[in-house]
Amino acid sequence: MQNNTLKEIGEQLLSANRILLFPHMQIDGDAYGSAVALCYALRNLGKDAYVLLEDKVPAFLSFLTQDFCLEGEPPFESADISIAIDCSDVERFEKRKDCFFRGKTSVCLDHHMTTKVFADYNYIDAKAAATGEIIYDLLKVIDCEFSPLISDALYAAITTDTGNFRYSNTTKRTHMIVADLYDKGLNHAKVCVEIYENVRKERIALSANVLKDLHIFCEGKAGLVSVTQKMLRDNHASLEETEGIIDTLKSIEGIEIAVLLKEKEDDLIKVSLRAKSYGNVAEIAKSFHGGGHIKAAGCTIHSPLADAKKMIIQAVEKELAKGSSL
Prior knowledge:
The protein is α/β, with parallel strands linked by helices. It folds into 2 domains: 6-196, inorganic pyrophosphatase (n-terminal core) (Alpha-Beta Complex), CATH 3.90.1640.10; 201-324, Roll (Diaminopimelate Epimerase, Chain A, domain 1). Helices cover 39% and strands 20% of the residues. It has 12 helices and 12 strands. A 6-stranded parallel β-sheet has the order 3-2-1-4-5-6. A 6-stranded mixed β-sheet has the order 7-8-9-10-12-11. The longest helix is centred in the last third of the chain and has 20 residues, at 305-324. The two termini are 30 Å apart.
């Protein structure tokens, strides 16, 4: 895949007036923090810029919510530039794709190794720990003045996608970028409290309920848990509050691959996958038309939960068998 340069993309942004940003559905810290940072920077440059959403912002990210975030139709018919942020393919913003392609020029900024090219201009860097790192570089290229809000948003993007700097995607450069954000007004303590220390008791109860049914397989090398709609109702919790459960599962001694199944509807299961050292969960996700990174990936299975569980277990067993033969 041939990338454009950030300079080329920056020139497009500087020459545009109306710009729409499209983070992926089921928005996470990287997609939202990156979109907020870029949108705020574009506004500071005098652009008419908006972040277009199709679902609610999770509570732990609501401290970044600004008046430029919209649900539904934007205030103009078509954008000069539509920018997909942290989206590996158009299915990641399915309900907004018509609006995206109404833009005169399209751009994709992403860091997933499984990204499919769909925009006029593309900058995909699988070595970046988060799309937030790419946005940081882009803002440098267009000579944008960083503000405390931009710095907080980029920090939120990077800390969440690196597991608070614990995941293997974290690099020396990740820390150097964050160090620079401190000089630009970052309030890391505030961001960390909002993201990691502002949890509802219902979320804790849900996690306990989910982990009770932990299934260990592959001779202790894999673990799987499921979240059902009944569990959510019983614990007065939302699907977004499953965030972090898979990291708890992955932290268990001996677990190489952790799997979290989330029942959105009767026949619609969202799957999150994590690997600790040698497992390649991107390959597992890809086999179900999903994507992501080698150590963190996801997919959607259109089957009842019990069937989805069987399919994922078989795929994990197949992947771990490769490791055992090395």
